[in-house]
Amino acid sequence: QVQLVESGGGLVQTGGSLRLSCVASGDTVSGKTMAWFRRAPGKDREIVARILKSFDSTTYSDSVKGRFTISRDTAKNTVYLQMNNLKPEDTAVYYCNLGPLFGQGTQVTVSS
Questions:
Q1: How far is CA 60 from the centre of its chain?
Q2: Pseudo-torsion of CA 104, 110, 79, 41, nearest 10°?
Q3: For residues 87 and 14, is the Cβ–Cβ distance under 8 A?
């Protein structure tokens, strides 16, 4: 059974940084397209970043481009989301995604 476990969320001030981690068990993150989504209060879940199975190419939503970086460490079977220059509008629960699977999420709160 494949499980995704996120960690690294927390409370940070505007302009601060956080690094989210997603550890996969039961499957490898190598050679897979994986993504980070987020759901802000009162809003639909939205995709934030993807790392593609082909050449580890990455894509980002316009709202985080230039501030967030997705990466993976296959030795640790972990996908990361480095978030810099955080803004209050980044406040959300962040979810790791692999195919149809999502983790339980980790809360990120950015204070103004």
A1: 11
A2: 40
A3: yes
The full DSSP string for 27-80 is S--TT--EEEEEE-TTS--EEEEEE-TTTT-EEE-TTTTTTEEEEEETTTTEEE
What is the amino acid identity at position 99? G
Instruction: Output the six-digit token pair for 77.
Output: 């079977």
pLDDT digit string (tens) for 52-75?
998 889 999 999 999 999 999 999
Could you report the per-residue pLDDT of 7-58, keeping only the tens digit for each? Answer: 999 999 999 999 999 999 988 888 899 999 999 999 999 999 999 998 889 9
Task: Determine the Cα–Cα distance for residues 101 and 86; give it in Å rounded to an integer.
Answer: 26
